[in-house]
């Protein structure tokens, strides 16, 4: 009889810098996340509309390729899935309000912080189910 594979947490990483996007993705994959990577808010919005309820975490930069930024994307993400853990990062001060429950991280941040916060958000979400 085949044994069921445990469900892995799912993360959406939105970053227009390919090196940073890949680094965040690898960090999360090492923490047993399935990762979807997008370079723009517009591409991420398609993922959110299709799979938003199945995501546990979204990490996005404020400045992105395309017409929308990470703050707008955070609001879209929370509308698609209010329980979604959202982290918005930037090397500049945040000048606009994030949706309730979203967190802002100033760059640079430590890779271990990404892992810890991702795991904390998943535990909080699973506890709320």
Brief digest:
With 129 residues, the protein is an alpha/beta fold. Helix content is 41%, strand content 21%.
Kindly report the CATH topology: Rossmann fold
The structural domain count equals 1
State the total count of DSSP E strands. 5
Strand content: 15-25%
The CATH architecture assignment turns out to be 3-Layer(aba) Sandwich
Helix content bin: 40-55%
How many distinct helices?
A: 4
Q: Could you give the topology of this structure?
A:
Elements: E1 9-14, H1 18-30, E2 33-38, H2 41-51, E3 57-61, H3 70-80, E4 85-90, E5 103-106, H4 111-128
Parallel strand pairs: 1-2, 1-3, 3-4, 4-5
Characterise the protein shown here.
It is a single chain. This protein has one domain (9-128): Response regulator (Rossmann fold, 3-Layer(aba) Sandwich), CATH 3.40.50.2300. 41% of the residues lie in helices and 21% in strands. It has four helices and five strands. Strands 2-1-3-4-5 form a five-stranded parallel sheet, with helices on both faces. Strand 1 (9-14), helix 1 (18-30) and strand 2 form a beta-alpha-beta unit. The radius of gyration is 14 Å and the shape is globular.
């Amino acid at each position: 009889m085949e044994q069921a594979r445990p469900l892995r947490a799912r993360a959406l990483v939105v970053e227009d810098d390919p090196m940073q996007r890949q680094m965040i993705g690898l960090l999360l994959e090492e923490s047993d996340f399935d990762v979807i990577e997008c370079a723009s808010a517009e591409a991420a919005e398609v993922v959110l509309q299709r799979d938003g309820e199945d995501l546990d975490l979204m990490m996005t930069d404020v400045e992105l390729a395309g017409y929308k930024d990470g703050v707008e994307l955070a609001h879209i993400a929370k509308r698609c899935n209010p329980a979604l853990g959202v982290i918005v990062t930037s090397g500049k001060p945040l000048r606009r309000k994030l949706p309730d429950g979203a967190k802002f991280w100033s760059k640079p941040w430590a890779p271990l912080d990404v892992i810890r916060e991702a795991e904390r958000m998943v535990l909080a979400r699973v506890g709320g189910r």
